[in-house]
Each structure stands twice: as C-alpha cells, then as structure tokens.
C-alpha cells in the first residue's frame, strides 16, 4: 500500500472541499473495494477522505410512501431496520444476502451503488424500484445512474448522500450466487406498482439493466408467459463463472421464480 493523506471531514461540504483540493482523492465509506484495491496496489490515491463520521447520512425513514435510506447505512442496518422489514421485507432479505456478516456490518449501500460492481445486488433493486438517487448537487433518476462496469454518472465533485424509493405493491429479488463470493452470477429483481411491472437484472452483463421486453409483457398480464431469451447473448457476460447462454437461461428461470413468489 502506498502512502496517502487521511482526512475525516465533519460534514458533506468539508468532504467536497477536501476532494477538490486533493490531487487523486478517494472517498472511503465501508471500504470493501477501496481498501482491498489499495492493498493490492491497484490504485494509489493521494488522499483518502473517510466520510463515515458525517452525521445524518445513516438514517432510514419512511414518509408518505417514500423510503429514504442514507448513503452510509450498512447492509446489516438495512437488513435489521424495523421500518424496512415492515414496509419492504424482501429488500431486507436482499441486504441480508450480501457477502458475509463482516461485509454486511461495514459495507454501505451508498458505497456499493457508487462502486457499480456489475455483480452487486443493490443495483438490481434500485433499478426495479422507482428510485431517486440524491447527491450533494442533484437528484439522479435510477435509469441514468449506472453507465458501465464500475462506472456511474457521478461527477468528480459529487458525493452520494441518500436513496429514496417509492414503496411498491410488491418487491422481490432472487440471485444465483457465486458460491465463494456470494456475488450474483445473475440476480433478478421485480417491483410491481399497480399494473406496472418492472424487472431488472444484475450480474449478467457489465452494467445492470432493465429487462424491458419482460417488463412490458408482465405489465400487460402478470400471469402470462413472458418472452423467453429476450436478452441477447451478445449483451451478456461470458466468463469462467457462466457462459452467456447459461446467464440468458438464468434470467428466465429466476424471473419465473419471482412471478411464482408473487402469485
């Protein structure tokens, strides 16, 4: 690990100022990816800005059918929060299936979304649910947030502060996990708002995405047979964990399981 300057800002504005004044800065929340990458000397930030002690970024609230989750909320906190368990139980179950207990105690939802790992669980939920992502500068629609593998639309001077979710009539998430890492080889989320069905996929491609053809078919009739193999194999990952063809089939299998869980 290379030497670096370590900062502990007291508020968002201070964190942004330090970021602007640094040469190659990185924010530290849970550090699940950042610290490991630094240990392996894959990255060498000049300044590490630890935001964990910034107040009011780890709150969970429900108001007027909107679930607001602070960026510094850990996976474990979300999994055990009574409001989340009551209003969006399967969202809690998703959080409880991330990594292992140590990861869940330290890793944060904001850090996971900002890192945009193509096999992470939260992106599928955030895309399927009607979600707004808040930063210190603006509000970002969920469909605009993820732009590529480990890439988001966040700008250099932006810090993710919270996520707001419109509570659905039904939500669920199922993944086929890598047995070692627990990351999703393929993960599929479904959210239902009255007659609108939203299906999203993580793990299958370099970027999480909405399964538009499946969503449209199920919105017309949730109990109908949705189009199989609607996601082209050319758009899917083909690696040591699973072939593109296998992932294409997994999307259909997991979607069917989600439909059955609703029925």
3D architecture notes:
The protein has 263 residues and is α+β, with helices and mostly antiparallel strands. The chain has three domains: 5-50, Uridine Diphospho-n-acetylenolpyruvylglucosamine Reductase, domain 2; 60-166, Uridine Diphospho-n-acetylenolpyruvylglucosamine Reductase, domain 3 (2-Layer Sandwich); 170-262, 2-Layer Sandwich (Enolase-like, domain 1), CATH 3.30.390.50. The protein has eleven helices and 14 strands. It has helices at residues 12-21, 34-39, 75-80, 82-87, 89-96, 101-106, 109-115, 122-128, 142-145, 212-220, 244-262, and strands at 5-7, 25-28, 47-50, 60-63, 66-70, 130-135, 139-141, 146-148, 151-152, 160-166, 170-177, 184-193, 196-202, 209-210. The termini are far apart. The model has no long low-confidence stretch (mean pLDDT 95).
Please give the structural blueprint.
Blueprint: E1 5-7, H1 12-21, E2 25-28, H2 34-39, E3 47-50, E4 60-63, E5 66-70, H3 75-80, H4 82-87, H5 89-96, H6 101-106, H7 109-115, H8 122-128, E6 130-135, E7 139-141, H9 142-145, E8 146-148, E9 151-152, E10 160-166, E11 170-177, E12 184-193, E13 196-202, E14 209-210, H10 212-220, H11 244-262
Parallel strand pairs: 1-3, 2-3
Antiparallel strand pairs: 4-5, 5-10, 6-7, 6-10, 8-9, 11-12, 12-13, 13-14
What keywords describe this structure?
263 residues, alpha+beta, Uridine Diphospho-n-acetylenolpyruvylglucosamine Reductase, domain 2, Uridine Diphospho-n-acetylenolpyruvylglucosamine Reductase, domain 3, Enolase-like, domain 1, five-stranded antiparallel sheet, four-stranded antiparallel sheet, 11 helices, 14 strands
């Amino acid at each position: 690990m290379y030497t670096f300057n370590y900062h502990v800002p007291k508020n968002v504005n201070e964190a942004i100022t330090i970021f602007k004044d640094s040469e190659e800065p990185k924010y530290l929340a849970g550090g699940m990816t950042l610290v490991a990458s630094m240990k392996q000397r894959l990255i060498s930030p000049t300044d590490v800005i630890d935001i964990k002690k910034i107040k009011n970024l780890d709150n969970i609230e429900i108001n007027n059918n909107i679930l607001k989750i602070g960026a510094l909320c850990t996976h474990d906190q979300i999994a055990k929060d009574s409001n989340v368990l009551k209003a969006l139980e399967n969202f809690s179950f998703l959080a409880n299936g991330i990594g292992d207990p140590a990861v869940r105690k330290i890793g944060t939802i904001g850090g996971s979304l900002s890192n945009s790992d193509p096999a992470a669980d939260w992106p599928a939920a955030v895309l399927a649910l009607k979600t707004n992502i808040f930063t210190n500068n603006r509000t970002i629609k969920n469909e605009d947030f993820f732009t590529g593998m480990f890439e988001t639309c966040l700008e250099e001077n932006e810090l993710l502060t919270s996520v707001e979710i419109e509570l659905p009539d039904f939500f669920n998430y199922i993944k086929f996990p890598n047995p070692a890492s627990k990351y999703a080889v393929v993960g599929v989320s479904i959210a239902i708002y009255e007659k609108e069905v939203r299906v999203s996929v993580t793990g299958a491609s370099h970027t999480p995405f909405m399964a538009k053809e499946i969503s449209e078919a199920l919105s017309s009739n949730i109990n109908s047979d949705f189009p199989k193999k609607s996601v082209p194999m050319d758009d899917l990952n083909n690696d040591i964990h699973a072939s593109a063809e296998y992932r294409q089939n997994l999307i259909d299998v997991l979607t069917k399981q989600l439909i059955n869980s609703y029925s």
